[in-house]
Amino acid sequence: MGGETLAIIVRSERPESVYPALIIASTAATMGVNVEVFFTFWGLKVLLKGGVEEVEGKFREALGGEPKGVPPLKTLLDMARQAGVKIYACSTTIQAMGLGEGSFEESYPVVGAATFVHKHVSGGSRILVF
Amino acid sequence: MRVKASRIVDARGYMCPYPIMLLSFTLKSTLPGDIVEVKATDPAFERDVASWAEETGNELLEVRREGDVIVAYVRRVK
Predict the structure, then answer these.
(1) Which of chain A's residues have a Cβ under 8 Å away from the Cβ of B42?
(2) Residue A119 in contact with residue A125, Cβ under 8 Å?
């Protein structure tokens, strides 16, 4: 493929949003696609301290047990980044939720809508929303 | 056909995207021309590995089933 860009918006902390988003993101990155994932609203929880555990907990609860064959969410996130997926945090959500740098598990670039529109809408990326 | 792999990836028991991610990371750590063997039980892997190889320009030499296990050989092209 090469050169194509896939922009993914994750706006929910539900497992059915977070897992497929990261699965598609990490796989696409290994296939030569530039991938950027924007975490916004409840999706931003994934990046917060304890957020990964919270999403995994919801997944276990929904399944009534351990998910089989699925890597831990932290591993999935690490694999995505290792494959070259770029992760961004939404500035409005950070402000609305009263979050600070200390709220995050790691430091991520903070961006707003104009950056997204410039890079992906004007830039002609493919966009997926989870 | 018997292919000699320089690296073996055991992704048995893991579902998508794990087998493909492990294949990708392992292939990156090899040299062009090297062959990686992947064992997977994810039933999607047989189709996925073919799509992945086609998209990335690496060569899928062989895929076979050994019971529930899918065994694929991928040669790093570049």
Answers:
(1) 69
(2) yes
